[in-house]
Specification:
heterotrimer; A alpha+beta; B mainly alpha; C alpha/beta; A: alpha+beta; Rossmann fold; 6-stranded mixed sheet; about 35% strand; globular; C: D-Maltodextrin-Binding Protein, domain 2; D-Maltodextrin-Binding Protein, domain 2; 2 domains; two-stranded parallel sheet; 18 helices
Chain lengths: ~375, ~600, ~400
């Protein structure tokens, strides 16, 4: 439904050229919610604005549906208003001089999505119902709460039934509780309408909950594309691993590669670890090992015979309701881990830390 | 291929969204550039551009030690003094009348709007009557009370006196330039400051002021340029005597040596002085544009609801009201009283028992015919309406290009449109008159010479600098996403302008139109110069009366003029609902109580 | 615009004019060589006989032209426009559109010269301006000679016909037959009787530099009060004269337009002002008890004459000719003089008689640009590069530089 190839865009500032997007390429299938995830300044919003047509890229191609909307160096450029996409901005961009109804009706009254007058009221009402705003039609926009504005912005983007919906951090201005509710609601809505969406966010939790696929961006490049589970469980590099969830990252080098078994040995600052190795692994190769805090097993009963177990001291233990978040010092290195709330630990306590073999990932 | 990139981007942008505003911008700029080139050309012509010849005389005449030791320092003092005084009044006034719960705010605001209608010569006369060291009423009263023989208080023959009067006159432009942005600041920005725990004064200083800073700075630069180019007030207060020469008076007299040579004016000299005025103005403008570069920071109308928060001053209300009233007394009441007094005296005299016995309405006899009757009124209406509509339109277009596009020439456009403000209107009028004559020879079908059209053009060019300041400030505050989402919703730039941006900046546009109309109504120099058999306007009639010695009748005319304008203003504003406040900033109809969750 | 509302007068003229036209054409041809400037003394008597058909012919042409656009002084009330228009049309039986516009001559003459130089059609068919302005326009080829002006003037103006007024009182020097004087004023001192007595006033222009007048007077920024002085001096020394001007400039209290200066004399801010006589009359007309008086200088007093000239290549030459000539008549004067209060030097009204009497009584020396060869020579010199610089220096000297 959307195809972006080799997208490049640089901004000229008084400090020189700044490459915001450097060769981004991805494809979004129909009905898919595709997430551009990354820290601020990673180029995700620029990419989204390029798709919308609000920025003209320097290079690359953009297809929306069957239509080529941008081709290399401006050889072809379809103006914003002809691209037929829906969009929701972070600021919602609700026009403050119009009422809720007028805001939502705007695309149907003017421009290329113009609908017959008789249909407008019906379609607006339908869309407002969809987002749960049916009773506030006549309210002036400035009198809406943040959540309501967000719904109006969404209704306005949906009312002309666009092929593609672009969302630029639509939930970031809401408070935490509302945000969590809206995530689920938004995903359900988009799935119900079978809409193709590109969604920009810096919030990894939002990305994991909402999306079908995630592209993690960093420094103007896509670092990894995959399903939320792939990205979380099998990050391809330390940038992705570090950005999604919490990760313990340790420098390591491969010390033993067994003949035909897939499990080998790596040496790390906390000691030797057994883990599965890719076929290409060679002795002496420098790697990074990664494991998630929730995969770490902690026991107070002393070191047993199990593999990958080390002695450690609890440095910090914070109760966050559903679990404990601990920092445990192993050989002077701090390891983050999570414990079920039933397992009470205190700082200063001696514990045994086990890093299960299956939880360890090797990153190049 | 990085070298191609800017070109590609520019072409792409023009092709899509900006062609329309850009075309209109260049249309008006073409006229500006053409006239500027002509003014510059005239600085090298010995006498009239119709006579061949080349001379550097105008330039060499200007270079004198007197210029550096007297004229420039005086002009600088007058310029900076004026902006200090104007800012001293305008900034607190803008805040008091827009962001507090002071009573009678709309009435006060309208009264401030009346200031520009009062002719400058009346104001200067008024201040002489009040503060002259020999006859000044205030000085005499104070001297009697304090038992002094004379008081050093005076507005005559000192640049500070000029700055004082000019500052009072030029307070409204800053007031209105700042009022718009002040009303439209996203209150959440201020509320955040409140939450952090800043006191109100600190909020004002740290949050509110920086947010309206581009508006203020634009206003100050504009005021500076205006202050140094106004002629009549400094002239009456001593510049004409050569005691406190300023650039504006130098221009005037170098242009009109008078005597047997009246018909061979050295208009070229006006161009030279214009260039001298333009240079510091452009430097100021450069800094202004530097601030504007960070305009993103100042986009205070976002899509997240906004509603100005109004501070209740509580017991301090009285100080606020006192401040507003003292300004109005100084800038409106006193000159209006002088005006009224002058109109009721057969021959202007200082108030005394004898003078009171001479009060009469003789000056109001057949006033309308004296001013030129219906024809002149009609001309005036046509002029004022055309200028105010066209200035608003073109300012909107130019500011759109400057503020809302990334066209690379936008800074150049912003500079160019500002230049006419530095060129003395006399030089512009002369250039235009000359072009009119040449046009009547070669392009006889063009209705220029002697028509109301030529005055309209002159006024438009003259008012564009202010118009674009207002619009830049207004458009700069509309968050770009409000425009972008409208484009995403399938509408083209013209629709976006008409349905989204224009309504959002409507208060500024209405204000600009009214303000332009009033200044156009009052303008004399150009209208006089370009007047022909059919295009006399009211201001010219009044000026002619004054100049030919009929001060009383002129004052009566001015009283009628001020009264009409005030009545019109009150009428327009009450029809346009949300009285004056709606005019200057309250775009969104104020809801009674916001239902904030 | 004013012309649009003009009432149509004299419908019967339309019946008569074709007849007149034919006779007029025949009379015109042999008559022309007879009129030469030399034969003016005999003219006054001859005129009635030959003037009539000539005038009728011009009137016929004016009717054909159908319109007239002319300037009147910017100081004249706009209320004068209608009566002047009506009287002019009635007197000459013209059913044409007449547009009279208040125009400041000093500004318009620049444009007029530019029009001439550019070859553009003049905005106005006939313009009024001061003697020196008119001389400049004349020099630039911007004015057009009126053929048979002596006979036409005698036919139109009863004062000329009766011999009361000589032709050279209306058309003088180089402007003879080109431009026609219709009013004049004399520069003098106007003072506040409460602040200074008549005997304390300066007697000569040079005395304006006296320290006792420091800050007490105002003079206009234009050089009119001084430039003609060079022609009045016995032994004119330009540098010395410039020093006199400079001293007076430094001594003065303000440089203001004459009208503004007089206003501030009445206010009591200044003791006296250099200004023209008209402002005096204006003030007395409004307030007979105003504390104000006037006095001539003993050395010289500049006279400014105002002339009407027909522009070169005008759109309506015949109507323009008629208007320029008619404006010299007592009939026209009776309309504008009561409100404008400027004198007509050859006129017969109360103002005119007092004007002449004042000058006679005080034995004041009044001097105008067109008086004699010396003044004309000086005016010509001011037009040269050297003279231009001198005037500029004088203007600066007035402002105390």
């Amino acid at each position: 439904m959307i195809r972006v190839t080799n997208l490049r865009k640089q901004f000229v500032t008084k400090h020189g050229a700044l490459a915001a997007v450097r060769g981004v390429a991805f494809e979004v299938k129909e009905g898919e919610i595709f997430m551009l995830l990354g820290p601020s300044g990673c180029g995700k919003t620029t990419t989204l604005r390029c798709i919308a047509g609000l920025e003209a890229p320097d290079e690359g191609e953009i297809w929306i549906g069957e239509q080529l909307v941008f081709a290399d160096r401006g050889q072809k450029i379809v103006p914003v208003y002809k691209r037929g996409v829906g969009m929701v901005f972070q600021s919602y961009a609700i026009w403050p001089h119009l009422t809720v109804f007028e805001n939502v009706a705007y695309p149907l009254v003017y421009g290329i999505f113009k609908a017959p007058k008789s249909e407008v009221r019906e379609r607006v009402a339908k869309t407002l119902r969809l987002v749960g705003m049916e009773r506030l039609e006549d309210r002036p926009a400035p009198l809406l709460s943040g959540g309501q504005q967000q719904r109006v912005a969404l209704a306005r983007a949906l009312v002309y039934e666009p092929k593609v919906l672009l969302l630029d951090e639509p939930l970031s201005n809401l408070d935490a509780k509302l945000r969590a509710e809206m995530r689920v609601e938004l995903r359900a809505l988009m799935k119900r309408l079978n809409i193709t969406a590109v969604y920009v966010t810096h919030d990894q939790e939002e990305a994991l909950v909402l999306s079908d696929r995630i592209a993690v961006m960093h420094g103007g490049e896509i670092k990894q594309i995959g399903s939320p589970r792939d990205i979380y469980v099998r990050p391809e590099n330390d940038v992705v691993a570090g950005f999604i969830g919490t990760a313990n990252l340790l420098p390591a080098s491969i010390s033993t590669v067994p003949g035909n078994a897939r499990e080998g040995l790596v040496s790390t600052p906390i000691g030797a670890l057994v883990c599965s190795l890719p076929p290409s692994a060679a002795v002496g190769q420098a790697v990074t090992i990664m494991f998630r805090p929730e995969d770490v097993l902690v026991s107070v009963s002393g070191i047993g015979q199990s593999r990958n177990t080390f002695a450690g001291i609890v440095e910090q233990a914070v109760f966050v309701g559903s679990r404990f978040q601990c920092v445990i010092s192993v050989n002077g290195l701090k390891i983050e881990c999570e414990l079920p709330k039933s397992q009470v630990v205190e700082s200063g306590q001696n514990v045994a830390v086990e890093i299960p073999c299956h939880a360890i990932h090797l990153l190049p | 291929m990085p070298s191609v990139i800017p070109f590609v981007r520019r072409r792409a942008r023009i092709a899509t969204a900006d062609a329309l505003p850009l075309a209109f911008s260049w249309l008006v700029l073409a006229v500006v550039i053409f006239l500027l080139a002509f003014v510059l050309y005239m600085t090298f012509v010995p006498s009239l551009p119709t006579e061949p010849g080349f001379t550097l005389r105008h330039w060499s005449n200007v270079a004198s030690s007197r210029l550096l030791t007297k004229v420039v320092p005086n002009t600088v003092i007058v310029g900076f003094g004026t902006i200090c005084i104007a800012a001293f009044f305008a900034l607190p006034l803008a805040w008091l009348l827009n962001r507090t719960t002071l009573p009678l705010r709309t009435t006060f605001t309208t009264m401030i709007g009346i200031v520009p209608v009062i002719p400058g010569f009346i104001l200067a006369m008024g201040w002489i009557m009040l503060l002259d060291e020999r006859i000044g009423l205030i000085n005499n009263v104070a001297a009697n009370l304090l038992g002094l023989s004379s008081l050093p208080l005076g507005v005559k023959d000192t640049p500070w006196g000029m700055a004082w009067v000019l500052g009072l006159v030029l307070t409204p432009p800053i007031f209105f330039l700042v009022a718009g942005p002040l009303c439209r600041i996203d209150p959440s920005l201020e509320e955040v400051a409140g939450v952090i725990g800043m006191k109100q004064l600190t909020t004002l200083r740290r949050v509110t002021l920086p947010l309206v800073w581009p508006g203020i700075l634009g206003g100050l630069i504009y005021t500076f340029m205006t202050a140094v180019s106004i002629f009549e007030i400094p002239a009456l207060l001593g510049a004409a005597s050569g005691k406190v020469p300023v650039l504006a008076s130098e221009i005037f007299y170098s242009v009109r040596p008078g005597g047997p040579l009246t018909a061979t004016f050295a208009y070229g000299a006006a161009g030279v002085y214009g260039t001298l005025l333009a240079v510091p103005s452009l430097v100021g403008l450069y800094f202004y544009l530097r601030v504007l570069e960070r305009t993103e920071r100042y986009q205070v109308i976002t899509g997240k609801g906004y509603r100005p928060r109004e501070t209740d001053l509580g017991p301090l209300n009285w100080i606020g009201i006192g401040f507003v009233i003292s300004y109005l007394v100084l800038a409106v009441a006193l000159p209006l009283l002088v005006l009224l007094w002058a109109s009721l005296m057969p021959v202007l005299q200082l108030p005394s028992r004898e003078a009171l016995s001479k009060l009469s309405f003789i000056n109001y006899d057949s006033l309308l015919e004296g001013l030129g009757g219906i024809a002149v009124i009609w001309n005036t209406v046509v002029l004022v309406l055309c200028v105010s509509l066209l200035v608003s339109f073109f300012s909107f277009m130019v500011s759109w290009v400057v503020v809302r596009t990334r066209i690379r020439s936008r800074k150049l456009i912003d500079m160019l449109v500002m230049v006419p403000h530095a060129i003395p209107s006399l030089a512009f009028a002369f250039a235009l008159a000359m072009l009119g004559i040449l046009a009547s020879r070669w392009l006889a079908w063009l209705p220029l010479s002697g028509t109301i059209g030529i005055i309209v053009i002159a006024h438009i060019i003259n008012r564009m600098p202010y118009g674009t300041r207002v619009m830049n400030s207004a458009l700069g505050q509309v968050h770009h996403e409000l425009e972008e989402i409208a484009q995403v919703c399938g509408t083209k730039t013209p629709t976006v302008m008409r349905r989204i941006i224009l309504p959002l900046v409507k208060p500024s546009v209405v204000y600009l139109a009214v303000w332009t109309a009033m200044l156009s109504f009052q303008e004399v120099t150009m209208a006089l110069f370009l007047s022909g058999p059919q295009n006399h306007v009211l201001a010219v009639s009044i000026w002619e009366l004054w100049e030919s010695g009929s001060l009383g009748t002129a004052a009566a005319g001015a009283v009628a003029m001020v009264a009409t304008m005030s009545a019109l203003m009150f009428a327009i504003l009450s029809v346009a609902r949300g009285p004056t406040a709606g005019l200057v900033g309250r775009g969104v109809a104020e809801p009674p109580v916001a239902e904030e969750p | 615009m004013a012309g649009l509302r003009k009432i149509r007068v004299s419908g019967n003229g339309a019946v008569r004019w074709p007849v007149v036209a034919v006779t007029g054409l025949f009379l015109l041809l042999p008559a022309e060589p007879v009129w030469s400037p030399g034969a003016q003394s005999a003219l006054a008597a001859d005129a009635p006989a030959k003037g009539k058909p000539l005038l009728d012919e011009v009137v016929r042409k004016a009717r054909q032209e159908g319109e007239l656009v002319a300037t009147i002084s910017s100081s004249w009330r706009k209320t004068l426009i209608q009566p002047l228009t009506d009287a002019f049309r009635k007197r000459l039986g013209l059913d044409v559109k007449v547009t009279l516009a208040n125009v400041e001559s000093s500004q318009h003459f620049v444009m007029a010269i530019a029009e001439t130089q550019a070859g553009a059609p003049p905005t106005y068919d006939v313009v009024q301006g001061t003697d020196s302005e008119t001389m400049q326009l004349h020099g630039a080829g911007g004015t057009q000679r009126v053929e048979n002006w002596e006979a036409l003037l005698a036919e139109i103006n009863p004062l000329v016909r009766s011999g009361k007024v000589r032709l050279d009182q209306i058309g003088q020097g180089p402007l003879r037959g080109q431009s026609f004087m219709f009013m004049a004023n004399v520069k003098q001192l106007i003072y506040n009787t409460k602040l200074i007595s008549e005997k304390d006033l300066p007697r000569t222009h040079a005395q304006l530099g006296d320290p006792k007048y420091k800050g007490k007077f105002s003079q206009p920024p234009w050089t009119t009060h001084w430039d003609i002085g060079l022609a009045a001096l016995e032994k004119p020394d330009r540098n010395e004269w410039l020093d006199v001007v400079r001293k007076a400039g430094k001594n003065g209290g303000a440089v203001l337009y004459e009208s503004a200066g007089v206003q501030r004399v009445i206010l009591g801010e200044f003791a006296f002002a250099l200004a023209q006589d008209r402002y005096m009359r204006q003030i007395f007309a409004k307030d007979p008890k105003a504390p104000i008086g006037s006095r001539f200088f003993d050395d010289y007093n500049g006279l400014t004459g105002f002339y009407h000239s027909v522009r070169t290549r005008p759109r309506h030459p015949a109507a323009a000719t008629l208007f320029a000539l008619w404006m010299t008549t007592p009939e026209a004067q009776a309309i504008w003089q009561p409100s404008d209060l400027q004198a007509v030097p050859y006129g017969d009204s109360k103002i005119d008689r007092e004007f002449r009497l004042n000058i006679e009584k005080s034995k004041a020396r009044v001097i105008g640009w067109l008086d004699n060869d010396k003044t004309l020579e000086l005016l010509k010199w001011y037009g040269t590069e050297e003279g231009r610089k001198y005037v500029e220096a004088m203007a600066r000297a007035i402002r105390g530089e």
